[in-house]
Amino acid sequence: MNGIMTRGNKSASEVGQQSLFYHSQAKDFVDLHEQVETSVNLLDSLESFLSTFQKDLSSVSGQISELQERSKDIDNRLKSRRRIEKPLSSLLSDLAIPPSLAITILDTDVGEPWIATITDFERRLDLLKVRSRVKAARDLGDVAEGLRIVAATKLRTFFLALLQPIRTSVTTNMQVMQTSIFVKYRVLYAFLQRQAPNVAGEVQKAYTGTARTYYETGFRRYVRSLGWIKARTPEKPEPIISRNGNNGEPYLNQDRLAYAKIDGPSIILAYMADDKTHEEPIEAILRSLFLVLMDNATAEYAFIVAFFRSESFAPPPAMETNSALFSPTATLLSPDFGFGDRKSNAGSEIGTRVSRPFGGNEHGSRDVTALPGLMDKAERVPLDAIWKQILDPVLEYCKTFVTTVLEPMPPAVPLLTMIRLTEAVITEVQKRDCPPLENFLFTMRLQLWPAFQKVMSEHCDALRKLAEGGTTSYFNRAASTTDASVATICNRYVVMFNSFVILTDQEEETMIFSNLLRLRQELTKLIARHTENIHDDVAKATKQSAMYEVLLQGLNKGIHLSTHPKSQKEIAYWAEKEEEARRRIVSIAQSRRIGKR
User: pTM score, two decimals?
Assistant: First the structure.
């Protein structure tokens, strides 16, 4: 019981202590309660603020989305404008004619600035035609047409004025005019061909007439001068059996054989005819004519191709109107084979002066930009027609002169020299690609070959008649032979044979060596006939051996001749004949010694 009371007293004491503690902390609890209420109020206020902020944030988010949509729309519109910017700019550029272009055409004379201007103008003309569906292009068409008419009129006057120096003086250097002036303004003429064909045709006709008169006058004077020189040195045909040795002992004249090549002596100039003592062989005269013809005719053909050839318009980029692409020489003349380079050292008596020497190496591969060889037949026909209109009188003069060269007929060696010259000129003309001149020269060669064959036939017939003991038209009495005359005939045969070998590159050429074979056969018969009246067999064989020796000595002159296959065969033939004669001498001598015994 006591224990229970004791525990009760302790509990009451503890409760009293706790009560005192809480009473002492009451203020703190009150303060804490007030703070809690304040915090709750603040949280309520914050909740209200956050709720309002969330509403505002939702509103801002909606505005941002709207701004993003607007931004995307603006970006798409910008991309669309960028896509049409270049085409629109190109359209505006195509439809516009710059004031500077119009001022150049309307207010300035034709000159170098026109080259780029006209190229740009033609590009714009073509673009206006392409854009004809655009109203602005149709509106601008009248302005462009007016400028085209003004440009065509000024260009017509300009090109006709360029021809004036050629019309007034034949001493004007035609090739210099062509290469330094006409080709330079080739772009302007091409503009006329495409945009004003009637004006281009008028310019072409004016040039054709002027050039025709220029060449006709020059070649007429030059051919007349050559005719005077030819008249001073008449060269009549001398048969191989002729006893009238006007030129002394026959010999191989290699100086005259040199006229068979393009690369050789200088040509005859017209003023040389004024010297009445000046003489030239017929080969030199014909060579001068053909080389002057070749230089002028091929240069003219090359110019015609370069200048009058029709070409489609290929405009450069609009921003490059001052580029070197517009240079006439950049597309019309190649560095390897421009028509100004198509020259030999022959020169011309009608105003042409040349600077290049002859030589096969000078004519290498050519640029493909404006070569006649790359044209088809349809392109060639009008250009060939222009060339023929210009050069027809010149070809007639040359044809007539060749006819006079064959009257009287020259000797065989000069004739073959002229034939080889003609062939060399044809080869060079083929390199220079001038088909009309090539055809003309083929005709001249065909005219020379029958004359050569006729002369060779006369030699063979004369030798045959002499070998048969008949008479010929060259003698008034029965033909007879002497040692001297037969030796002269042998020497003439040797000179002719060696000359033909020098002039013949091909080992087998029927026209040449078949005639020489006929001559050899007749000469063999002549030697046999000449010695048949000698009754002493030893003397006969000795005489024949001496004749054969004359032939062998002549044929063996010059190592370069004796190494030719035909020369070797010829030497072998006469050496065999000479050996047979020697064997007969030995055989007869031995027979006589045996008979005496």
Answer: 0.75
